C-alpha cells in the first residue's frame, strides 16, 4: 500500500510540473512553481545592492542633517545600500569612520570633509582598495578624489556682496560712508575661502574708495574666520567687535556673514549688544529654519540658498555613472534634474584639478520666500514662518 501511494504521489507531481511548463499565461493566483520567474529581474538588483559610504561632518548643524538625509534617501530609493556616518566635527573620528567603511566593502565614498587636509592617508587606502571618492560640497586637499560635487561657492560670496551693493545703492553713494564687518567660515573648510573671496572681491571697489569702511580693520580671512562654523564662536567674536568699536554709538550698516550658523550668532550679538538704533544688513547662506524666521522678523536680511536635495541628486547620478564603469563628464549634466555645470579648471586640490559638477545658488530675502516653498522642501506655517514639511 505504501509503495502504491508513493507511486500515485509521484505521478501527480509529474502531471503538475507538466501543466506548469506548458502554461503560457499566469493564472490569477500564481502557483508556487512560478516564483523563480522573478529571478531575471534580480540582475540589475546585484548592482543596486552595492554599498555606498556617506561621511557627513556633524549633526550639530541643520545643513548636514539635511544633506545626510537627502543623500541616504535618494541612494536607497535607487536601490543601493547606504552606510551613513556623522563624525561630530572630529577629523580623527571621520578618518576612523571612513576606514571602517573601506573595511566594510563600500564601492564608492561620498565625503564632506571636516578638515580638508586630514584625509590623505585614509583616501590613499581607499584608492588602494579600488574605491573612488566623491568630495561632497567641500573639496578634499592632497588626496586622490574622483569628482567634486558642490555649488559655485565663489558665487555664494558674490551674491551676498551684490545684495549689499543693491540694498545700499553703493553705485550712487556719493560721499556717504557705510560701515561693514565680515564674519567668515571655518579655516579647515576649503569652501570658506571661496565664499569670503567672492564677497570681498565684489566689494573691493567700494572698500578701496572708502564707501565701505571696516571699523575694526579686520579684513583678512584669518582675522574673521569662525572655527567649525560655530554659532557660539561667531557670537563671542562679534560681541567683542561691538564692545570694542561700536559701543559709542558708531553705526554698523552691514554684517556680512558667510553662512547661516555664523549669522545666527552675529544677529544674536547685534540684538543684545549693539548700541545703534538701525537694523544692519545681515547676510547668510543655507536657508536654515531659524535664520528664515529671523529674515521674516527682520533680524537677518538675506540668505544664499543652495538646494541640497538637488546636490544629493547630482551626486547620485555621478555615483551611478562611476559604479557602472562610466566616466562622468559634461554630457552627464544632461542626466541631472537640476542645473549644473561641469568644471575642469577651477578646483585644484594639490594633486591636480578635480573634475567638478557645480550647481547654482540664489539669493533669498523676505520678498521671495515663496521660492523656497516652490522647492517642496519648505512649507509656509500658519504664523508666516517657513517650516520643514
Write a structural description.
- The structure is a single chain.
- The protein is α/β, with parallel strands linked by helices and 389 residues long.
- The protein has 2 domains: 47-145 and 307-359, Rossmann fold; 153-306 and 382-387, 3-Layer(aba) Sandwich (Rossmann fold), CATH 3.40.50.
- 43% of the residues lie in helices and 15% in strands.
- It is built from 13 helices and 15 strands.
- The protein has helices at 2-22, 42-48, 62-77, 91-104, 120-128, 153-168, 190-209, 221-224, 231-245, 260-273, 289-297, 308-323, 370-374, and strands spanning 51-56, 81-86, 108-111, 132-136, 147-151, 178-183, 212-213, 254-257, 281-282, 302-305, 340-343, 356-359, 362-365, 379-380, 386-387.
- The strands form 4 sheets. A 7-stranded mixed β-sheet has the order 2-1-3-4-5-12-11, with helices on both faces. The chain has a 4-stranded parallel β-sheet with strand order 7-6-8-9, sandwiched between helices. A two-stranded antiparallel sheet has the order 10-13.
- Strand 3, helix 5 (120-128) and strand 4 (132-136) form a beta-alpha-beta unit.
- Helix 3 (62-77) packs across helix 12 (308-323) and helix 4 packs parallel to helix 5 (120-128).
- The radius of gyration is 27 Å and the shape is globular.
- It starts with a helix and ends with a strand.
- Residues 1-48 have low confidence and may be disordered.
Amino acid at each position: 500500500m505504501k509503495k502504491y501511494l508513493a507511486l500515485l504521489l509521484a505521478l501527480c507531481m509529474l502531471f503538475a510540473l507538466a501543466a506548469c511548463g506548458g502554461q503560457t499565461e499566469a493564472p490569477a493566483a500564481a502557483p508556487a512553481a512560478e516564483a523563480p520567474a522573478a529571478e531575471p529581474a534580480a540582475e540589475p538588483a546585484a548592482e543596486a545592492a552595492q554599498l555606498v559610504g556617506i561621511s557627513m561632518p556633524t549633526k550639530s548643524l541643520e545643513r548636514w542633517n539635511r544633506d545626510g538625509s537627502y543623500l541616504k534617501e535618494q541612494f536607497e530609493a535607487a536601490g543601493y545600500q547606504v552606510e551613513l556616518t556623522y563624525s561630530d566635527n572630529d577629523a580623527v573620528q571621520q578618518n576612523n569612520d571612513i576606514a571602517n567603511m573601506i573595511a566594510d566593502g563600500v564601492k564608492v565614498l561620498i565625503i564632506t570633509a571636516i578638515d580638508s587636509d586630514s584625509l590623505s592617508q585614509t583616501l590613499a587606502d581607499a584608492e588602494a582598495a579600488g574605491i573612488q571618492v566623491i568630495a561632497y560640497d567641500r573639496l578634499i586637499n592632497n588626496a586622490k578624489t574622483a569628482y567634486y560635487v558642490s555649488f559655485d561657492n565663489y558665487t555664494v560670496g558674490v551674491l551676498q556682496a551684490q545684495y549689499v551693493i543693491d540694498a545700499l545703492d553703493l553705485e550712487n553713494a556719493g560721499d556717504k560712508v557705510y560701515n561693514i564687518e565680515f564674519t567668515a567660515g571655518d579655516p579647515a573648510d576649503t569652501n570658506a575661502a571661496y565664499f569670503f573671496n567672492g564677497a570681498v572681491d565684489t566689494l573691493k571697489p567700494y572698500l578701496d574708495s572708502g564707501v565701505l569702511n571696516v571699523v575694526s580693520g579686520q579684513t583678512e580671512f584669518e582675522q574673521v574666520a569662525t572655527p567649525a562654523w560655530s554659532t557660539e564662536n561667531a557670537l563671542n567674536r562679534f560681541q567683542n567687535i561691538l564692545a570694542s568699536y561700536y559701543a559709542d554709538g558708531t553705526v554698523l550698516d552691514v554684517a556680512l556673514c558667510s553662512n547661516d550658523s555664523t549669522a545666527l550668532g552675529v544677529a544674536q550679538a547685534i540684538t543684545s549688544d549693539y548700541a545703534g538704533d538701525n537694523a544692519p544688513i545681515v547676510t547668510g547662506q543655507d536657508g536654515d529654519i531659524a535664520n528664515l524666521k529671523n529674515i521674516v522678523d527682520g533680524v537677518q536680511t538675506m540668505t544664499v540658498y543652495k538646494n541640497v536635495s538637488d546636490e544629493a541628486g547630482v551626486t547620485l547620478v555621478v555615483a551611478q555613472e562611476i559604479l557602472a564603469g562610466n566616466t562622468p563628464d559634461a554630457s552627464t549634466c544632461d542626466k541631472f534634474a537640476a542645473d549644473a555645470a561641469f568644471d575642469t579648471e577651477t578646483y585644484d586640490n594639490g594633486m591636480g584639478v578635480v573634475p567638478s559638477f557645480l550647481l547654482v545658488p540664489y539669493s533669498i530675502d523676505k520678498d521671495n520666500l515663496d521660492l523656497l516653498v516652490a522647492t517642496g522642501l519648505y512649507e509656509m506655517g500658519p504664523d508666516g514662518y517657513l517650516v520643514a514639511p
